[in-house]
Amino acid sequence: MTITISEAAARHVQKSLTKRGQGVGLRLAVKTSGCSGLAYALEFADAAEAEDVRFESHGVTVLVDPKSLPFLDGTELDFVREGLNEGFKFNNPNVKAACGCGESFGV
Fold it and tell me: Which CATH number do you get for residue 41?
């Protein structure tokens, strides 16, 4: 199982962690939500939990809990700018359906 982060996303995370002044990386998870069933949860991690699965990519640590991992296996986290908008984009090969608003997905 693997989770990767693009170079652009890694730069954004490193910049944010530096500005924040603390943190060991990024925590990625899925939660039950939305009309398609699952939604991504993304937050800065100040410490790793004992059960976390750890991935390193471009100098950034991504922590994933074991329950979320099957839904995220093979995902690449990217950071994109489109016009005036910018944000994280999840390239998840497990997604079979997504809602129209883009907030949730199904596998």
Answer: 2.60.300.12
Q: What is the pLDDT along the chain (107 residues), one digit of tens a residue?
A: 799 999 999 999 999 999 999 999 999 999 887 666 788 899 999 999 999 999 999 999 999 999 999 999 999 999 999 888 899 999 988 887 665 555 656 67
Q: What is the dihedral of CA 93, 4, 46, 50, to 10 degrees?
A: 80
> Which pLDDT belongs to residue 14?
95
| Number of domains into which the chain is organized | 1
Range of the domain at 26: 4-106
**How many Å is the Cα radius of gyration of the chain?**
14
Burial-class residue 5 by CB neighbours within 10 Å (0-12, 13-18, 19+).
Answer: buried
Please report which residue ranges of 1-107 form alpha helices under DSSP H: 7-20, 69-72
Sign of CA dihedral 101, 3, 91, 7: positive
